[in-house]
Structure formats: C-alpha cells, structure tokens
Automatic annotation (TrEMBL), chain A:
Keywords: Signal, Transport. PANTHER family: ARABINOSE-BINDING PROTEIN-RELATED, BINDING PROTEIN COMPONENT OF ABC SUGAR TRANSPORTER-RELATED. Pfam families: SBP_bac_1. InterPro entries: Bact_solute-bd_prot1, SBP. Coiled coil: none annotated. GO terms for cellular component: cell envelope. This is Probable sugar-binding periplasmic protein. The keyword Signal applies. It is found in: Cell envelope.
Automatic annotation (TrEMBL), chain B:
Residues 80-365 form the ABC transmembrane type-1 domain. The chain crosses the membrane at residues 12-36, 84-105, 117-137, 175-195, 202-219, 239-262, 283-308, 342-365. PANTHER family: BLL4140 PROTEIN, DIACETYLCHITOBIOSE UPTAKE SYSTEM PERMEASE PROTEIN DASB. It comes from Meiothermus luteus. One of its GO terms (biological process) is transmembrane transport. It comes from the Bacteria. This is Lactose transport system permease protein LacF. The lineage of its organism: Bacteria, Thermotogati, Deinococcota, Deinococci, Thermales. Its main location: membrane.
Length: 411, 374
C-alpha cells in the first residue's frame, strides 16, 4: 500500500516539477526583430522543455496590424496567453481600464523587481498604484543623429536648443544645403513633434500635458506648434514619401545634416549599414532635451482568463530577469529596462543610452504609446493634418484639446 | 398554407432555406447590429470600449451628427469629398478608356485576341498587387517621375501619393446649396425627358419637385450652415496616382463589357445605316452608342460600388495613415481598430452602406422590374 502512495506522490511531484502544456505568445516581432524573440523563446524552452511555445506573430511595424487582430481576439473571448504591447497607456488606456489584465504587482514583489527597474518607468506602467506589464526593452525617442565628419566640414556643432537649431538650419541653408533636417512619412513627423514639445515645454510641462494639468490650448503648448512649424521649414519637402530608413539615409549621404529618430536608427546604421557608432555616425539628445530620456518600451502582460496561466507567469518571469533582458536586447538593438544589466554585451551607442537611462529624468513617448491612450494617439494624426494643411497653431491646439476632452485624456 | 400545395414550391423553399438563413444572419443581421452599434456610445468611455461585457448606452444619431458637423471629424468630411472625386474620375476614366479600346478591337485589327487578353489581364490581379506595383512606380524619386528623362526632359517633381495640393476647394457649408442645385437640375432634365417621351404626369411631378428643391436651395439652403466656420475641402491631387492605378486595373473589364455589347449589335443595323449614307462618326453617334447605353449603366454601377468602398488599393499604395489619400473605408478601420471608437466606426460603415445602396438599389429595382415584365 505504501509503495503505491509513494509512486503516486512521485508522479504528482514530477508533474509539478516539469511544467507542460502550451504557451501562446502574440507579438509583431517578425523580420528583423524575429531573431531576438526567437532567442527568448529558446531560452524559455531550455528552462521548460515540455511546454509547447506557439509563436503567433502578426507582421506590421509598431503593431499596426497586430493590435487590430488582438482586439478582435480579445472581444471574441480568445485572449492569447501573453501579448506584446507598448508599455504605458497603450496597455493601460485600452486593456487595463477595461479590466482585462491581471495585476502583476505581486510578481514584481516576489522577483524583487521593484528596485531593479527605475521608478519613472514603474510610474508609467502603473495604474492606480498597480503594475500591469513587464517591460522587456527600452528605446529612446528623443535622439538627434548626424555624421560628425560632415558637421566638421560644414563647420557647425550639434545644436543644444531648438532656437539654436533654427540658427544652425539657416547657416546650413546658406551653405547650399536645401533641407538640413531629414524627415520621413507621417508618423516620423509626429515623432519629431514630441521631441519639439519636450524641448519647448521641458520635462515637467510635457508630462503635465498627458495628465491634463496643462491644456493643449495653453499659450505654452500653442508655442510648441509655432516652433514645430519653423522646424518643419528646415525639412525636406518630399518627407511624406520616405520611410524612416530613407530619412536616415539622407543624413548618411550628406543630403541633410540631422535626423530626429528613435534609437532603432542606431540598430539600422550599425547592423544594416555596417557603420561604427561614434565614428561614422554621432548622436545627441534632441535639442533642448538633454538630461531627459523620452522612453518607449515593449512589454508583455497577463490577460485575464488565459488558458495557460502558470506557463505565462513563467514567461513573464523570464522576460523580467537579467538573463532574459540581456539575451534579448543586444539582438533587438535596445537597452534593458533593468538598471543592472551587463554593459559589455552592448555596443557603444547602447552603452551611452544605458548611462543616460540610469541618470536621466524619464518621460514617455506619445507616438509610441507610452503617455496617451490609443484613442488619443490615433486621432493625433488628424491634429497633425489640421496643422499641416492650415499651418494654424491655434487651430491645431484647439483640435488636440477637443480630442483630449473626448477621450478623457489623463482622467 | 397555399404555397405548400405544390410540391416543387416546397422543395424549392427547402433548398433555398439554408442560404436564406445564412444571409439573414450574416448579412442582414450584422447590418442591423452595425446600425444599432452606430446609435450607441460604444468606445466613448475607454473603460467600456474593450471590456468583456461593455456597458453601452443609446445616444441616437449623435455619432452621425458628429461626423457631419463635429469639429474633430473634419477628416471624415474630406474623405467623403475624396470618394466623390475618386468615383467620378475612376468611372469616367474606365468608361472612356474601355470604350476606346473596345471600339479599336471591334474593328478587327490583327492580333485582336492577343490584345484583348493583354488589356483584360490587369483585372485578374488583386488590388493589393496592383497597389504595390504602382506604389513603386509612383515613388517621388523613381518610376513615372523618371519617364521624362528618357526623352531628355528634366525629371518630374510631382509627389504622386503624398502631395498636399488641393484644387476646386469649396466650403463644407455650401454643400446643402450645391446638393440642392445639382439634384434640382437633374430633376429638370428628367422632366424634360419625360415630356419629350410624352409622359406628361411624370414630367409634371419631376418639374414641380425640381422647382421646390431649387427654391429651397436658393432660400434656406444658403442659410443652412452645418459648421459655425468655413471648412474648405477639395480634390486632393494625391488621388491622381490612385485613379491611374484603379483605371489601369478596371478599364480592361469595361472594355470586355463594351466589346460584348458591340458584338451584340447586328451587322444589318450598321449596313442599313451605311446604306442611308451615314458617315462612320454618325454611325457611332446615332446607332452604336445608344445601343451601348444599358452596358454603360451596368459598368457604372459595378465600377461605382467598387470605388465607393475601395480600401485595399489605397491601403497597398499609400498606407492607412497617409491623410491626402484617405477614404471612408480606411477611416472606418482606423477609427474602430486603432482609436477604439467602435460606435463611430460603425456609423462610418453605415454611411458607406447608404452610399453604395444609393447606387445599387435603383439598379436592382430596374432589373427586377424589367425581369417581371419579361
């Protein structure tokens, strides 16, 4: 009899030890970003060999298509075990407020992550004091890229403020450079806007825009549009037809002096173009934003009612671990969200970003879903449209405020 | 139970039943559901937009009011204008090019079968493929813009899909007036045609309603202002590229329709006209083109409903975010699935359905009537 009990206990025990079943991961990391995700999955499989990982990717940069698919799945009552989402309001404003996500604060406590991630980041991914997602990587939005040799040739320094930028722009125009600033399609223009807004308003007022403490119609916020308009006058006229890579190419070819783009541009220049950070291309914070790190981050959460909860929690545990983050990020071309990651695994640009990440003030990006919910972000395109077609700062500010009211921004 | 008596009727009904049920649920049921959604505030409250059991309130036609007169929905109104111009030029282009190709082929040149296949072939591609090809050709730095360099001219500078230039601008506030004016004039034309055909009663009804409508447009139509300020809309030149691609794809199809029509015209009629001394031009003008009128109508209906709900071609050519080439179907997708404004997206969908119905229903009505008559 005792023998039987022992055997039963053994079987039960081994079942508990070796997690089995499935885990479905929903993301938009295909193509260039595929290998980084695969490395994570491989690591997960090494730890939990009996779990079958289903890698459900929907292509389309920044998740433009994946998000639509995710919404139909969630509304249809078929949530994936864990899905990729931009950390911050893109998760909170859509899924957390709708009560579709589980609180991950206990996991953060249990794993001791509360002091491993910077406080500014924890604030951005929390809602009413609870944490809802595990950030995997950090990208910086407010970076200005240039080619040092070219700048020396033209005899200019990377500008420190937007006022300085406009002067440099005039100097360069005088030297026959038609469009000193390289700009690309639609969203890259909004990307430029957020750097201008941060530079003109400063970190505190920029953050206040998204909590509703500073209205878009406030003269300070209207001034952002005026500066933005003058910065646009420095940019190429065919911007709308270029991808962000083509805009970066303009700088590398010497057709433009500067480009404001997130630091995935560094990944593009080092990996695709084979350039050396610091020598072949240089970087500086976007004008007026030194000491501020405008971040965006990909994160994973735990939807309510998933089929394989334990496997998902193990996945999240892996994502937040030092090993997981240092496996993923060097391949993805981003830095770890944790402040204790190993710098030797990263290239020169990323090392400098890691130093800033630890010391700078952290604010969130608009275009990449950190500070405003999707309902605001996607209609911000309309605001941009109103400004570009009328060049009327007040009209754009009014439209932005109207949309903010409509979607209850910051409430 | 009378219809039961005949066994064939019963079988017929039973055979039709599954498709009736499926259509009823998946077409008409969902149309009703979308209509209901469009009358609610689903999506306005972010805590309810995507919750498992959303609490949804009835708000009547508020979403429609916002779309047509709201401050932040200027993009929707520009989209309607875009659709109007796109439909107009797309249909004109396809009919014109299709008819010319058909007439050319009808005269029996050598290799007619070959050319017929060549012209018809683009239709077999999907809009996504067409869109991708034309997207490459219309890049600002390449393709079509490089063509002039072949003959030694400077290369073109036109930003095909992203130009912000707008022509024929008008204020949205003038729309009630213009609509009244155009519909009134059309009614006058109908009245004139009816009088000529000797249908006096119809003519009078048409002319009286035309008079009333014109009177309304010149009095109340001028003062009715949907917006408190002037909002200018016009034809986005960026659409020229989209129109080019769409015409390239669909004119072969129009050609096939016309060619069938031309082959259906008996040779005797042409000969009779020639015997009467008609020139080739007169032959086409007075004999052949009038006989092609029903084909023109069918082609217009088919092209019209394609262009009103166009989505894939624009999506592939310019992407969903390129505002100068936006159309309502794209905006519906963005509003629903990106901005989570589900009710407003449904309202845009209903407006689209209504526009397509305006084109399709009179056509179906006419078809059914003529079939019964037969």
């Amino acid at each position: 009899m005792r023998k039987w009990f022992l055997l039963l206990a053994l079987i039960l025990g081994s079942l508990g030890m070796a997690q089995s079943g499935k885990l479905e991961i929903f993301s938009w990391w295909a193509g260039d970003e595929g290998p980084a995700l695969q490395a994570l999955i491989d690591l997960y499989k090494k730890r939990y060999p009996n779990v079958e990982v289903i890698n459900a990717t929907v292509t389309g940069g920044s998740g433009v298509n994946a998000r639509a698919v995710l919404k139909t799945r969630m509304l249809g009552g078929d949530p994936p075990d864990s899905f990729q989402v931009h950390a911050g309001q893109e998760l909170i404003g859509t899924w957390v407020v709708a009560d579709r996500m589980e609180d991950l604060t206990p996991l953060f406590r249990q794993e001791g992550w509360l002091d491993k991630f910077p406080k500014g980041l924890i604030d951005l991914i929390s809602y009413k004091g609870k944490i809802y997602s595990v950030p995997v990587n950090i990208h910086r939005s407010n970076v200005m890229w240039y080619v040092p040799a070219k700048l020396r040739e033209w005899g200019v320094q990377p500008p420190k403020t937007w006022a300085e930028f406009l002067t440099v722009c005039q100097t360069l125009k005088g030297k026959g450079l038609e469009a000193p600033l390289a700009l690309g399609e639609n969203w890259t223009q909004q990307h430029l806007w957020e750097s201008v807004a941060l530079g003109v308003l400063g970190a505190a007022d920029y953050a206040n825009l998204w909590t509703g403490k500073l209205r878009f119609t406030d003269p300070k916020a209207v001034a952002v549009w005026n500066t933005f308009g003058r910065v646009l006058d420095c940019a190429n006229k065919d911007a709308a037809g270029l991808s962000w890579q083509q805009a970066v190419d303009r700088v590398l070819e010497g057709k433009a002096a500067f480009n404001i783009m997130g630091d995935w541009a560094a990944g593009y220049m080092t990996t695709t173009k084979g350039l050396k950070p610091g020598q072949d291309f240089g970087w500086a914070p976007a004008p007026g934003t030194a000491g501020v790190f405008m971040m965006l981050s990909d994160s994973f959460g735990l939807p309510k009612g998933v089929k394989n909860r334990t496997n998902t929690i193990n996945w999240l545990r892996l994502l937040g671990s030092k090993e997981g983050q240092d496996t993923f990020n060097p391949l993805k071309g981003s830095i770890a969200a944790r402040t204790d990651s190993d710098p030797s695994k990263y290239n020169a640009y990323l090392q400098s970003a890691m130093r800033d990440w630890k010391t700078n003030r952290i604010v969130g990006s608009l275009v990449h879903g950190t500070v405003a919910p999707e309902s605001f972000m996607s209609q911000f395109g309309t605001v941009m449209e109103i400004y570009l077609s009328s060049r009327n700062a007040q009209a754009a500010a009014n439209a932005a405020q109207a949309i903010a009211n409509q979607v209850r921004l910051g409430q | 139970m009378r219809w039961f008596r005949n066994k064939d009727t019963l079988y017929g009904f039973l055979v039709l039943l599954p498709s009736l049920v499926l259509l009823g649920v998946f077409v008409y049921g969902f149309i009703l559901q979308t209509f209901w959604t469009s009358l609610t505030d689903w999506g306005r409250d972010p805590t309810q937009a995507l919750s498992a059991n959303p609490r949804i309130n009835f708000v009547g036609f508020e979403n429609y009011r916002e779309l047509f007169t709201g401050f932040v929905d200027a993009r929707f109104r520009q989209d309607l204008v875009n659709t109007f111009f796109f439909t107009l030029f797309f249909i004109l282009g396809c009919l014109g090019l299709g008819l010319s190709l058909a007439i050319a082929l009808d005269r029996g040149p050598r290799g007619e079968g070959f050319f017929r296949t060549v012209f018809l072939f683009p239709m077999s591609l999907s809009f996504i493929v067409t869109g991708t090809i034309w997207r490459w050709m219309l890049q600002p730095e390449g393709g079509v813009n490089q063509l002039p360099t072949l003959v030694g001219l400077p290369k073109g500078e036109f930003a095909w899909l992203t130009s912000r230039e707008q022509i024929w601008r008008f204020s949205w506030n003038d729309l009630p007036f213009f609509t009244g004016l155009v519909v009134g004039l059309v009614l006058l034309l109908i009245a004139a045609a009816a009088f000529r055909a000797g249908e006096g009663k119809r003519g009078w009804v048409a002319s009286v309603s035309a008079g009333l409508l014109l009177l309304w447009s010149f009095t109340f139509g001028r003062t009715l202002k949907p917006l408190p300020y002037d909002e200018l809309h016009g034809f986005n030149l960026a659409f020229i590229g989209i129109i080019l691609a769409a015409v390239w794809q669909m004119s072969g199809y129009t050609m096939a329709l016309y060619l069938a029509g031309l082959r259906g015209i008996p040779e005797e009629l042409r000969e009779a006209a020639r015997v009467d001394g008609a020139t080739e031009w007169q032959l086409y003008r007075h004999v052949i083109l009038p006989m092609l009128a029903p084909i023109t109508l069918s082609a217009m209906i088919i092209l019209g409903h394609i262009s009103l709900k166009i989505f894939d071609l624009v999506f592939a050519m310019a992407g969903a975010d390129n505002a100068p080439t936006d159309v309502p179907a794209l905006l519906m997708y963005l509003t629903t699935f990106r901005a989570n404004q589900i009710a407003k997206g449904a309202a845009i969908g209903m407006v689209l359905l209504l526009m397509v119905a305006l084109v399709i229903v009179p056509y179906l009505y006419r078809q059914l009537k003529s079939e019964v008559r037969r």
